[in-house]
Amino acid sequence: MRTLTVNHKFNNKHLNSFLMNEFPYLTQNTFYKALRKKDIRVNDIKVNENIIIHEGDNVKIYILDKFLFGEEQNLDIIYEDENILVLNKSKGIEVTGENSLSELVHKIYNSNCINPCHRLDRNTSGLVLFAKSNEALNILLDKFKNQEISKFYRCKVVGILSKKHNILNAYLFKDNKKSVVYVSDFPEKGYRPIITEYAVIDENKDKNYSILEVILHTGRTHQIRAHLAHIGHPIIGDGKYGINSINKTFNEKTQNLVSYKLRFDFKTDADILNYLKGKEIKIK
Fold it and tell me: If both were cysteines, with which of 144, 157, 232, 258 could 126 make a disulfide (CB 3.0 to 4.6 Å apart)?
């Protein structure tokens, strides 16, 4: 059983829209079968129709994980040694929390000592770095804080960018109640500085899209998605910061964003992890 809370985005929307956004592997057939079996509850009331839901509603679903996350729940290990583990996270799963990637790691390794050093959005795929001990975790958290580990992303965005390389500076505000962030070009109360660097690696003028490599110089919630949308080039498939009509044209239901490379740019001593200095770990 999984419990979800309806956010502002799905206020006054149909139940299936909410659930299929949360679980990209969930099909309409499985959804309606669960309704017929009354395996979905809204505010602890069993429902058998595709009802309208509202912000704050509590949704409980009794659907097997294989129908929510795919048949297999194996780890896609990209790199591993005695101190760290780097996994390729698929879309549709959180890094932490109930039924998360971290929980799966703990289950497979039979250990609660392996923990993530950073996070990715549920529907962003790609590399997640785990530490296998508290000593390694503290070192890596410090390296992230001091920008001695670089994270590289690839994404597909709307439009052709006039500048093929740019370092964007702005300010971001996180609205926890609405689970959304806002970007401003000027400092305002509650807004924090953000720096997002991009380089165009491919573009298609006929279909009006570009492929970018993005480097985060700050790590705020939804930073890449919101910052690129702010400059008029939202990520294709992004239901929160993107353009729904364009997403439908490209038949993309989740943001086309992947964390594809980590680089250990250690400038100071890393103790037991010094051997990682200069190392790159990436997926194709």
Answer: 258
